[in-house]
Every structure is written in structure tokens, then in C-alpha cells.
């Protein structure tokens, strides 16, 4: 299919055309005599030129059927999935003139909106394709209005051993266990800065605060109607319960992104998915939002969290609750799935370990979206991902409340024309006068109708309150226990202190008690009770002398009006210890302190 050559192609096409014009000189058709026949020469020049022109048109125009039906099958036949992935990234990070592009127009019916930011169309590329931010403009040029780079981890890491990416062709699916292969924050930062600096050099007026500050009047994608997201992951060696990798990501890469995505749903990093449960998620998102607030300029970047459709309804409700309470701006559902048996897969690679993506994921991603939508306020958008293959899938996601969709696996199978194909399919499916925006939330009567499921949110609130009460009781118990332990410790300390101070006085005062008993008796404290001031003995039951045995539970009552300094025990009263019965003989001293019967003076 030959397409009209747009003006922008004049430069890219000039090179192949020039090359083809030279070709006859190098390899021209010559007569046996050695002379070149001018007619044949012109004929072959024209043929080669035409082939080159047609080839170039097919190459540059991402809509060419050749991409989906020739180039992609050839790549699949010749390269393993990871090689094919690398090749695609290389092609899309080539200089602008050498890259295929979307030659179509995004009409007004395709306009979308995300977190208050306008989008030329509702189709984005999901995380995991451009892991190290190498081909952002190549992807925008293909017609994606939203590009998500990453997942990026703080430290470079190579990921899992090869092979780790598998095609499931019979199922239009893939399984990957890349395990966050990432060149690290530093490398991604340098790519983002390079891109910004190159743009600033061409448009200095947009950068009054210098070439590395966010531009004025433009999103950080540097293209109106486009969004650049940075997806943050976590190093395999980082502690499972640490949020630090994400917080560092927000600080380091957040200033260059319209959206930072917190990816806690990849199945290939041990422990990562556990971060989706409510308490760790709330803690993480609260920290991320605070970090974002600290670096925000003009309300950017926004924060989104990416979850998997493998979560139960309860778990999705927990995610919604964490999103609501922490002020996160949006949710992406879904990442890959670890489901297998229920998917009815045909491919021989179905048994590979890892996250499954592509068509079989779609019903599960859609179901998760439908569960989540009524649990979030209408102003918290959801990005639908997971098995979106064509315009009909995208519109089904929109009707269930997705503000936009992302693709990855379809891009791997359908090729560089995928965004254009999807957009054309969406536009064709829309009734005349209809628009993407009007489809968003159509299942609820439109975006304005995407209200809370009041009963569900109320029930969830009641459950939360009950849990909070229970937690409160546990905390009170713990505190009480700690208080009594602390009091007991204080009492023991006071006893030891008094013992040390009184030892000399008692020995020198000649009480008539045997030395050992005196030594035991001095282990005392001065206590104030409602009955008066008491000197409490804490000598052990195993004391060696009869007097000391008496002293074991002895309490010498001193009238309340008699001032007794805490450090002095009156010796004559000590003699009376034999006659005095302890008020609670079985209770230990610590028990009496705990019960409030006694307090230390
Ligand atoms: C090879 C591959 C690598 C991926 N890497 C990431 C990643 O690094 N971070 C992430 O959040 N999602 C990653 N994903 C998940 C995709 O972003 C997407 O959520 C998922 O594939 C579902 O969409 P799809 O069915 O259109 O592919 C990856 C997917 C694939 C196929």
C-alpha cells in the first residue's frame, strides 16, 4: 500500500533516493562490449529508485501493513524475544530522521485527559519496554501520547539469568521474568537530562531558569498533549520492607517526569508484591507523596501506583483505601499475572515462570478495573493495562472507567504501527459525534457518574474503624504492661539506691540485730501509703538469720506526720518489725506498686 509522502519526509527520503541514484554507477548494467546502454541504465535506476522509495515509505510510515505482517513475523522468526526487544529499542533510539513515525492525525474524538493533563489520544506504552529511558521520542513519534519508562531501580542490576522472556504466540501472550534489569537511576537521569538539555538548546525562551529546570508552559514530556511517566522499581538486594528505593526515585527522577509510578506489582522481585497490602502500602504511599510534595513544581510530578489484577476484591479495596487516604493521584491496573491454569493457554512456553502478559490477561485486568473504579473518587483516574489488543479492548476499558489505556505485548506482536492501529480502530468504532472522553465511565452513565459505591465504602469504613478500635485496645494493653514494668523497674532501682545509702548508717547505729540481718534490713524503701509512711523491706526469704526472716516481709509503720527523709531509716522503728504484720503478705512489692496501693516517695 503506497502512501502519500508528507513534507516531513523530504529529508529522510533524500538519503535513500540519493543512494539509489548512485547505484547504477557502481553496479550499472553494461553491454558485453563494455559500454552502458543508456535506456537500460535509466530503466534500472528507475526500478531501484522506486523500490527504495516504496521501501522507505513502508519503513517510515508506522501504518504500513508491512510492519505488522512482514517485519514483525520476520523478527519473530530470526530473533529471540529479548533480542527482538533490544533491536526495537535500538531502532527507536536512532536519530529522528531514521525512525518510523505515526503519519496519521489524532482527531478531536481521541482527546483524553489524565490527572488534569490533556492527552492527544488515550494510548500509552506501558513500563518495561523502554526500561532505561533510551527511546522516549521514538515512542512519542509512533503516536503514543503517554510514554512510561522504567522500571528503574536505584543501583544498576542485571536481572535474572537468560532466557527470561518467552513468546506464547498461539495465545497472543508473553511471559517474562526479567527481574528489573535496570541501568540504575544514574543512567536514567543522564538520559532524561540529555533530552531536556537538547530541547532547551533549541528553545531557550522556554527555560528562563536554566536548561535543567522544568520548562514553562509545557509538560515534562516536552510535547503538549503528551505525558512522560517514570516507573520506579526496587533493587533485588534492598530490604523487602524498605521504601527507600522508591523515595530516592521520586527525589532523583521525579523532577523530570509528569507522573512517577510506584511499581509494587512485578512478580519477578521477591517480596515486592507484598507491598500491595494495606499497611505497608499506606506507609509507602504516604512517604512517596511527602517526597513528591517536597520536590513539586507547578503540581508536578503526579503520583500513580501500579497494581496487579491478581489481587482479591478485599485486597483491591485495601489498595483503594490506601490511595484515598494518602492522596495518590492515580492507579494503573494491571501488571502481569502469575495465573496460569485458568487461562487455558496453548503455547508450549505456558509453563515458564514469570509474569504473563497479553490477550489472556485482558478479562482479569478489566475485572480488577471494574472492582476498583467504584472504590475511588471519580477524580482519581485509572489507567487500564493488560491484554489491550485492539480498539474494542481499549473502549471496553474506557467504559469501565479507564481514562486511558497502555499496551506492551500487543506492541511486541503488532509492531511499530500499534498505536496508530489502535487509534484508528477506536475512532472507527466510535459513533459519529462520540468521543473517547464520553466513553470514559459510560458503564456508570459517564465520567460524572463514576461515583463511589457508597455502601461498599461505608462497609469498608466500618471495618476499618473496628480494626482501629481493636488495634487501640492492643496498644493500651501494651502500654499498661510497659507502664507496670517501668514502675517495677523504678521500684527496684529505688530499693537498690536506698540500700546503698543506708548501709553505713544502719551498721553504725547498733540496732542489736546481727550483722547479716542488718545487711538484709537495709534493703529497704520509704513508701507513702494512705496509712502513713512505710519502710518496706525487700530482704529475700532465704535470709540466713531468724531476724532476717522476720525482716523478709517487714513493714515499719511510721506516722504520717513524722517527716521521714527517703534516704534515712529510723533505727528504733526497725526494731518493731517483728510485731508488724504486712498488709498484703503474699503480694510482692512490685504488685503493690502496680495496684496503686503504694507509691514511691
Ligand atoms: C517484557 C516485559 C517487561 C515488563 N517490565 C515491566 C517493568 O519493568 N515494570 C512494570 O511496571 N511493568 C512491566 N511490565 C508489565 C507491563 O507494563 C504491563 O503492565 C503488562 O505487560 C500488561 O500489559 P500488556 O498485556 O499490554 O503487555 C513488563 C511487561 C513485559 C511483557
From TrEMBL:
Q: Name one GO molecular function term.
A: dihydroorotate dehydrogenase (quinone) activity
- Which cofactor does the UniProt annotation name? FMN
* Gene Ontology cellular component terms for the protein in this record: mitochondrial inner membrane
Functional pathway: Pyrimidine metabolism; UMP biosynthesis via de novo pathway; orotate from (S)-dihydroorotate (quinone route): step 1/1
Q: Which domain of life is it from?
A: Eukaryota
Q: Which UniProt keywords apply?
A: Flavoprotein, FMN, Membrane, Oxidoreductase
Q: What is its main location?
A: membrane
Q: Which reaction is the catalytic activity of this chain?
A: (S)-dihydroorotate + a quinone = orotate + a quinol
Q: What is its EC number?
A: 1.3.5.2
Give the InterPro entries listed for this entry: Aldolase_TIM, DHO_dehydrogenase, Dihydroorotate_DH_2, Dihydroorotate_DH_cat, Dihydroorotate_DH_CS
For the biological process aspect of GO, one term held by this record is: 'de novo' UMP biosynthetic process
Which Gene3D superfamilies does the record associate with it? Aldolase class I
Keyword Nucleotidyltransferase found: no
For region Disordered, the annotated ranges are: 582-601
Family membership, please give it: Belongs to the dihydroorotate dehydrogenase family. Type 2 subfamily.
**What name goes with this protein?**
Dihydroorotate dehydrogenase (quinone), mitochondrial
The organism's lineage is: Eukaryota, Fungi, Dikarya, Basidiomycota, Agaricomycotina
